[in-house]
């Protein structure tokens, strides 16, 4: 086709579209809700459904007559609208983070620019009343040429913009053809370099609106409050298509009509006395009805006031916290296309995990999302469709080049229009509490101007833009137009330094706690700071969901989730898109559970555990605990609940604390813990009453510990020495020890062999995504290939025991030794072995992934029982969602199926461990809490395989018993692991005991 070239001209963002307006869907006056946002009504004709489609490699290949009604459509195939064509099997997926998928030559794009030709037909009956038909698109990536009955109706870009065309003049009675040509790339691509799978097509709904000859086009609901917030005023001002129009309005509080009236010019105000204010905890909505020209617009209204005062963010005069996530429209099957059910599922899950805020990274979300946020209660940081990150990847570029387009006057209009689209569409949504100018595009004149425009258009909300920390040289970088100081992934040290000075603007981390793979491990540390500093408004975890593409199942029923590089895509950024708190299918990760408990509504501190005195702090911003939280307690002794009860209703005002006394009686002995569980009170559909919102656990001052079983001993322990192997045996056991490898090669109990491979020293773990940087040091230090060297082994009898001593080192190929170990194994007549390792680490070597022993156990050992932080995986810096208890599970259940395999399923703070199966058990204890991991997979397998669905079980149980593991952190994008969680000891002792025994 010979197209007018609007797609390489950033001055043009659209041709033939209507001016921007607030998003709304009218219904015919007098009708109740049509049932669903876009349901067929006298006003709406949905066009979503099956269209015809054909993909061409470039615009020239598209037949000139394709938009014509006469075009032979037999070479087109059915496609669902909305959808992205890559998910329909066209073109190919690509995942790239910062690097552009095209050469960088703005505003130009490659000639070979895939384009999707779409066609559909609809009926039209002219009502001869002068009414208009508007064609609405809620999202097309990246730009579209629109034709009605072969005539060019217009063009637009900005993928996540809602646009509308008046197509009345192109229509004819009866069947009408809508043809849309969508280009994969346009100059807008330079401003849509968001870190995501790159998808194309008509990915949001399409519909027609029939409107009267004159009708309400746009309206703004603004709010004003008396100083004491006891009175609110709504000011509504509407704009009509032609001149001035009148409006009949009604304002409802539930079923109570609070106000009604008529406005001859579409401008009116109304007063609300004693308003019920909106906040995310109590999202109270009023309803405004605007009727004019035969139609009604129903508009939820949440009354709330946002202020930034003296460096603190206030909602309705109270300081409050952003406990948020970054959310992309992303699904492994539908891609960018999100149904109302999918949106509701995400928000419901968030709400059930105490999340109260969403940053719509990095574009305006599907409009439906905001209505759900209004209703369910979420603070939304609504972001413009802008990211130009790829500037940093140019040849010879440094970090500052992120801001090239921020300072390029050719893109001034494009940036401004993107921000205008955002604000115009979403200005009436109460959940939107802040505008964000975009993401990672550097700072310069274009953004300063956009911010100035926002302030002039909407004085009621603050403006956010993190990338102002990257000013482009030689342009206007005035920061006064931004209302918050925003950073991403700033370390806790940075935060402390920042707050050591008085600050003028609230501080927010628009992204932090990178949730990639096993992690994040730093949530609690940040939230301690958020609660500590009034000016720390909060943050949004990066990010809500794993992005991946679902490619069916393996023969054994595992989902095949693909990521960058799996599609032959170049450039690609591998699994960096798989970095969410939920798996692609929305199964919560342990990171989400961790976040949930970090965000628990109440936090308890022990004042006196002997007397049962605790201080409970209400961490909610607006709700009294008396109406929102029921508290129950459980006292466990050696893992069993021995006392429990519920606390009487406790009224604790937001941000305050109360002392309570819990009527338990301390047991005489045993490992005793108290757990306070916070249950939802007065729940709603999305968080039912009784839902556990979080917990605290306290160790009680009772002495006790876990012991290995006491076996009746009827025969002494003896040993035999061979040249290489030493055999140690009693009545029911026989162990083999390799004096040259320094390992147990055999452990038998009542004739049954437990081991399928030797029990050896182990320092490796399958790198997690958060080990992304440190793993290079680990490989350089050879930790993945360390071999034992035994210098000396001796065995002797010591009273009732046999004692083995072994002096050895661990040294990797072509590298000096990492560790020197003096090991002692004291074997008792019962078969119990007391192990002790004295370890010296070469101090020039990096922190260790872990230190411990690894056992290859027979597959019969499929059952695990343990006292540790559980029942989910736990680590030194990731155990907020687990608690100390006695848990049982299968080894298989211990495995966490991260999309890219990595270390998983370990348990921090272990005090007792028992593997059992086939009538035999193997138990462990230590005088000091240890870590363990029981897995069907070897760490080598977890290291090598790129996808969960490729993992092959080892055929037995791989058991690691560790002195320690390095922490988890969030260094996949965030700061280095905090010193407290680094396994950086250069000399340590690890002692534990184990006992194989027959289960009778
Ligand atoms: C940030 C960016 C996000 C995402 C994240 C890494 O820099 O804003 O879009 O790329 O890093 O996952
Ligand atoms: Mg980026």
From TrEMBL:
GO terms for biological process: lactose catabolic process. One of its GO terms (molecular function) is beta-galactosidase activity. The keyword Hydrolase applies. It catalyses: Hydrolysis of terminal non-reducing beta-D-galactose residues in beta-D-galactosides. PROSITE patterns: GLYCOSYL_HYDROL_F2_1 (PS00719), GLYCOSYL_HYDROL_F2_2 (PS00608). Keywords: Glycosidase, Hydrolase. Residues 727-995 form the Beta galactosidase small chain/ domain. GO terms for cellular component: beta-galactosidase complex. It is an enzyme of class 3 (hydrolase). It comes from the Bacteria. Its EC number is 3.2.1.23. PANTHER family: BETA-GALACTOSIDASE (PTHR46323:SF2). Belongs to the glycosyl hydrolase 2 family. This is Beta-galactosidase. It comes from Ethanoligenens harbinense (strain DSM 18485 / JCM 12961 / CGMCC 1.5033 / YUAN-3).
């Amino acid at each position: 086709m010979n197209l007018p070239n609007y797609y390489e001209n950033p001055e043009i963002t659209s041709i033939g579209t209507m001016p921007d307006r607030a998003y709304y869907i009218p219904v015919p006056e007098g009708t109740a809700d049509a049932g669903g946002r876009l349901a067929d009504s006298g006003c709406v004709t949905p066009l979503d459904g099956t269209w015809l489609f054909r993909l061409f490699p470039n615009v020239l290949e598209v037949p000139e007559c394709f938009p014509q009604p006469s075009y032979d459509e037999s070479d087109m195939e059915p496609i669902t609208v909305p959808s992205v064509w890559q998910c329909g099997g066209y073109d190919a997926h690509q995942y790239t983070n910062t690097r552009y998928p095209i050469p960088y030559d703005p505003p130009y794009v490659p000639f070979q620019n895939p384009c999707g030709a779409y066609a559909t037909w609809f009926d039209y009956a002219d009502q001869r009343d002068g009414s208009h038909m508007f064609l609405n698109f809620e999202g097309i990536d990246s730009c579209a040429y629109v034709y009605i009955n072969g005539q060019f109706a217009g063009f637009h870009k900005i993928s996540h913009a809602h646009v509308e065309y008046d197509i009345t003049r192109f229509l004819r009675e009866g069947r009408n053809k809508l043809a849309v040509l969508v280009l994969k790339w346009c100059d807008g691509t330079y401003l849509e370099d968001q870190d995501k799978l790159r998808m194309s097509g008509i990915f949001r709904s399409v519909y027609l609106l029939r409107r009267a000859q004159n009708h309400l086009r746009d309206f703004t609901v603004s709010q004003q409050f008396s100083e004491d917030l006891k009175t609110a005023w709504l000011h509504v001002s509407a704009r009509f298509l032609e001149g001035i129009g009148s409006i009949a309005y009604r304002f409802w509080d539930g079923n109570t009509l609070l106000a009604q009236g008529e406005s001859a010019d579409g401008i009116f105000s109304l007063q609300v006395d004693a308003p019920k204010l909106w906040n995310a905890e109590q999202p109270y909505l009023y309803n405004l009805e605007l009727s004019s020209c035969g139609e009604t617009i129903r508009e939820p209204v949440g009354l709330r006031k946002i202020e930034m005062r003296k460096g603190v963010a206030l909602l309705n005069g109270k300081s409050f916290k952003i406990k948020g996530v970054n959310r992309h429209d992303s699904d492994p099957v539908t891609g960018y296309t999100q149904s109302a059910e999918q949106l509701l599922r995400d928000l419901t899950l968030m709400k059930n995990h105490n999340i109260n805020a969403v940053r719509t990274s990095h574009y305006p979300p599907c409009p439906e999302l905001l209505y759900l946020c209004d209703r369910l209660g979420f603070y939304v940081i609504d972001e413009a469709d802008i990211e130009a990150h790829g500037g940093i990847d140019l040849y010879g570029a440094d970090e500052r080049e992120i801001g090239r387009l921020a300072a390029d006057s050719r893109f001034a209009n494009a940036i401004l229009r993107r921000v205008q689209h955002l604000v115009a569409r979403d200005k009436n949504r109460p959940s939107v509490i802040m505008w964000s100018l975009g993401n990672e595009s550097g700072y310069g004149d274009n953004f300063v101007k956009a911010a100035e425009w926002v302030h002039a258009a909407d004085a009621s909300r603050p403006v956010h833009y993190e990338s102002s920390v990257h000013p482009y040289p030689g342009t206007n970088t005035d920061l006064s137009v931004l209302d918050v100081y925003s950073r991403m992934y700033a370390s806790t040290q940075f935060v402390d330094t920042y707050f050591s000075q008085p600050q003028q603007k609230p501080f927010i981390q628009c992204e932090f706690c990178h949730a990639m793979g096993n992690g994040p491990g730093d949530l609690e540390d940040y939230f301690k700071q958020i609660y500590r500093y009034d000016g720390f408004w909060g943050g949004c975890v990066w990010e809500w969901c794993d992005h991946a593409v679902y490619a069916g199942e393996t023969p054994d029923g595992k989902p095949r989730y693909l990521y960058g590089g799996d599609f032959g895509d170049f450039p690609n950024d591998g699994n960096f898109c798989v970095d969410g708190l939920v798996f692609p299918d929305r199964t919560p990760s342990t990171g989400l559970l961790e976040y949930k408990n970090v965000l628990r509504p109440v936090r308890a501190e022990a004042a006196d555990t002997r007397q049962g005195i605790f201080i409970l702090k209400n961490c909610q911003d607006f709700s009294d605990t008396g109406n929102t939280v029921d508290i129950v307690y459980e006292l466990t002794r050696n893992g069993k609940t021995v006392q429990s009860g519920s606390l009487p209703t406790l009224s604790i005002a937001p941000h305050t604390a109360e002392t309570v006394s819990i009527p338990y009686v301390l047991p005489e002995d045993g490992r005793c813990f108290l757990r306070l569980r916070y249950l939802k009170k007065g729940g709603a559909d999305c968080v039912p009453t009784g839902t556990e919102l979080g917990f605290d656990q306290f160790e009680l001052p009772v002495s006790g510990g876990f012991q290995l079983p006491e076996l009746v001993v009827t025969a002494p322990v003896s040993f035999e020495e061979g040249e290489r192997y030493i055999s140690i045996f009693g009545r029911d056991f026989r162990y083999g020890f390799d004096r040259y490898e320094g390992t147990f090669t055999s452990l038998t109990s009542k004739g049954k062999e437990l081991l399928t491979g030797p029990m050896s020293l182990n320092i490796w773990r399958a790198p997690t995504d958060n080990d992304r940087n440190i793993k290079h040091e680990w490989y350089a230090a050879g930790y993945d290939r360390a071999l034992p060297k035994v210098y000396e082994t001796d065995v002797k009898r010591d009273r009732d025991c046999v004692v083995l001593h072994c002096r050895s080192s661990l040294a990797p190929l072509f590298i000096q030794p990492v560790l020197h170990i003096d090991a002692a194994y004291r074997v008792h007549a019962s078969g119990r072995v007391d192990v002790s390792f004295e370890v010296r680490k070469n101090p020039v070597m990096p922190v260790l992934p872990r230190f411990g022993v690894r056992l290859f156990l027979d597959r019969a050992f499929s059952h695990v029982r343990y006292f540790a932080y559980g029942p989910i995986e736990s680590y030194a810096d990731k155990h907020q969602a687990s608690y100390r208890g006695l848990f049982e599970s299968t080894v298989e259940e211990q495995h966490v199926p991260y999309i890219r395999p990595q270390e998983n399923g370990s348990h921090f703070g272990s005090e007792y461990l028992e593997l059992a199966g086939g009538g035999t058990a193997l138990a462990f204890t230590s005088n000091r809490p240890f870590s363990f991991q029981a897995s069907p997979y070897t760490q080598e397998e977890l290291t090598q395989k790129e996808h969960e669905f490729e993992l092959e079980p080892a055929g037995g149980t791989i058991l690691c018993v560790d002195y320690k593991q390095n922490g988890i952190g969030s260094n996949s994008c965030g700061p280095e692991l905090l010193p407290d969680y680094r396994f950086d000891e250069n000399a340590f002792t690890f002692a534990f005991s184990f006992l194989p025994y027959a289960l009778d």
